[in-house]
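Justification of resources, computational component.

The compute hours requested in this renewal are based largely on the per-chain cost of generating structure records like the one below. Each record pairs the submitted sequence with a full structure-token output. That output is archived, and it is also reused by downstream analysis tasks.
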Amino acid sequence: MDQEIKAVYLKASPKSDIDQLCDSEFNTVIATFVSFANGQACVDGPMADWQPDGWIDRLHCSNKKVLFSIGGGAVLPETLEFLFLSPESTEICQAGYAPFLSAIRQILQGGPITVYSLSGAPYPTDYGQGFHGIDLDLENFASYSGGVQSDFWATRLANLNLALRRDLPLGTLLTHAPQTPYLLIGDWGVGEVSANPNGLYSKMMQLSGEAVSWLNVQIYNQSDFASPQAVENTLAVLLNDWPMVAGASTSARQVAVTVAMAPPPVECSSGYVSPAQLRDALSALNVAPGGLNGWSYSSNNAVAPSWDQVFTQILNAKQASGRP
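The structure output for this chain reads:
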């Protein structure tokens, strides 16, 4: 990465939000969501804004990297079953993968493309100047925690990463958005992590880390953050210990720590980390993340601080301290 990540998820595209985003210190915007039903690209949020008033082009003109996110918290990993030869296989099925890849490439280049609403209604659209990359936001892996099942989906995702890196245009960003319990390996004493001793995403990185631009690691909506000490412990494991066990192709620079931008119930059910908590926890570490990310942007959210400035202050403080 040529700069530190100051990213934010975008789940609506009113003009007021786009105006403020263009003037903000965020350098990366991830628009939600694209999912796949029967191999067809289905969209909601700003991705369903088929008269977007140039919001994508305006972000481009403000020098923002713009990605689109595939999946989301409500999407089961089984929705990508069509990409593999069988329910028992980890091998990519070209008959399913080819149209999936074609849809992604069309969206990346801005269209034109016919996409579908969540109700199944088709409509043609275009996305202006297009996107710099994709974010694979696959959650709901509880039934695949640990052992053989963890290895199974880790291999599937690794094979998908390697195929996409091979087939997408040179320079395309490819990120993932793992929840913390499905990333870390072993019982680190940070709550839910102990339920998943074979971190699925860690194994994915061992197999395909060179294909992944960075990870947007969600540290909210977890029970791991009952205290400031728990936040510090988890970030210490994530940035200090995890890369050493996740393979030579992985480093803390591939981690964008992703926080909820407002306390429950606005943007999360639990695990809200305040700017002060985040700053204190990171300042205690001798390593810096590749960046910071927030869920999700709203210019009308009066409870949220100016997270773009918070991110800049925290990352600048890490640089000033002489830490990597």
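DSSP finds eight helices and eleven strands in the chain. Residues 5-320 form a domain with the TIM Barrel fold (CATH 3.20.20.80).
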